[in-house]
Design brief:
Length: 423
Amino acid sequence: MSPNKKNSSPPRGEGWEAEMAEKIPLSPRLWSLRSRFNSLLAIFLALLVVLVVSSTMNDNYQLTDANSSSAGPAGSCDLFSGKWVYDNSTYPLYSERGCKFMSDQSACEKFGRKDLRYQNWRWQPHGCNLPRFNATRLLERLRGKRLAFVGDSLIRNQWISIICLLDTVIPDEHKSVESNGSLTSFKAKEYNASIEIYWSPLLVESNSDDPVHHRIPDRIVRVQSIEKHARHWTNADILVFDSYLWWRRERMKVLWGSFDDKDGFYKVIEAVRSYELALKTWSEWLEFHVDPLKTQLFFMSMSPTHFWGEEWGIDRNQNCYNETEPITRDRHWGRGSDRKMMRVVETTIEELRMRGVSVQILNITQLSEYRKDGHPSVYRKQWEPLTEEQLADPSSYADCIHWCLPGVPDVWNELLYAHIFSK
Ligand SMILES: *[C@@H]1O[C@H](CO)[C@@H](O)[C@H](O)[C@H]1NC(C)=O
Ligand SMILES: *[C@@H]1O[C@H](CO)[C@@H](O)[C@H](O)[C@H]1NC(C)=O
Ligand SMILES: *[C@@H]1O[C@H](CO)[C@@H](O)[C@H](O)[C@H]1NC(C)=O
Ligand SMILES: *[C@@H]1O[C@H](CO)[C@@H](O)[C@H](O)[C@H]1NC(C)=O
Ligand SMILES: *[C@@H]1O[C@H](CO)[C@@H](O)[C@H](O)[C@H]1NC(C)=O
Ligand SMILES: *[C@@H]1O[C@H](CO)[C@@H](O)[C@H](O)[C@H]1NC(C)=O
Ligand SMILES: *[C@@H]1O[C@H](CO)[C@@H](O)[C@H](O)[C@H]1NC(C)=O
């Protein structure tokens, strides 16, 4: 594995200042993850039990504003099952340069990517069409409201996408981005609408909660504590959560008690189990603190990575670097996506539903699995100067986690849009 061997020291906090200059703090530093991934790869490979989940827990619902022109009867349709269709007349939905709030982590064209077909793919569900994203209509829906995204750098990727999707219809003087600690808000003043991103990569409290300096090797999570974060988003009208990649290690150090408490009790437990405990805390918070009649709740399923070329038939030392076309093999599924953890999410949400709170899972894993071409790879801002060794082997520092914009997260937002209006 070329990326593993070159386990160069992961980026530190530098580069952040440059980002602050953009007025939008975007600090994904998921870098550490990659080296973690890699070092744990062997273990993962051994441990990975691919659970064949036959459950087709797909949400069927009435499409409200799409004509099913293609096939099948109008009405119920699984929007997450489909294929990518090249469509350069409709896509991209905005231009990279035209988006005032674009992040240097997603601006692949700006950082030298020449093949731009990754911007031109439309998601075509089997049996119906995705409703067209209408920014004005969404803003009207959000009038006087808060839409909050909560989670890690992948959901931040999605937040940048949605503000780019909305950006074009709002004149400059009527929009702004404000940041306060872990919360960053895009405001559409004319609509008194706020579209926010709240940094909490593990949803519950952890020692990685600092929106800037969160790359801490010895990760500690307080699986029973969420209020420090939750009080900032509880009153939002639409909440969109994600949390996955930060749990992708074999074991997790869990703390009972507070970080200041000398008598805090630590235990190292299986990561999947700690994920389960954390989601339980999260679901209980929703049950007791969020008004299900007022608030729409969504959970983004895991975002896949493309680090292992042999999964799509190229050399095993290759990754998403140099990939320019989606995977066409139906149901392609990489080993970066853990079905066991997906099941934990499903079960937690199902139990919550039985207690009267409905959270919609936006199952974007499968559709994103096909998009090995959609990652920034080397075409993004680098936080540290690259070594000669790295430059000689670009795939060694390729980002195969996040996504270029315009690109895949735009489709996640089209799906979110469809669900916001399906009620
Ligand atoms: C998401 O979709 C995949 C495949 O399309 C399926 O295996 C999985 O069970 C679904 N998960 C959820 C939570 O709906
Ligand atoms: C749906 O199709 C009907 C008839 O084909 C057409 O009159 C109508 O304008 C279409 N609506 C939308 C939203 O495209
Ligand atoms: C769209 O793609 C087609 C086929 O690849 C090409 O002929 C056409 O020039 C493209 N149009 C634009 C606007 O890029
Ligand atoms: C978008 O939505 C607005 C407000 O609902 C509506 O007036 C407009 O016609 C829509 N645009 C398109 C292209 O459908
Ligand atoms: C603006 O929206 C907030 C919620 O985000 C609400 O509390 C406030 O009352 C609204 N203000 C006006 C003037 O509508
Ligand atoms: C930032 O958040 C804190 C606590 O949530 C609040 O007390 C403070 O007023 C906020 N600052 C600004 C500038 O909004
Ligand atoms: C990437 O593509 C370039 C140009 O097509 C080629 O020269 C290079 O060998 C490729 N690198 C890898 C690692 O496949």
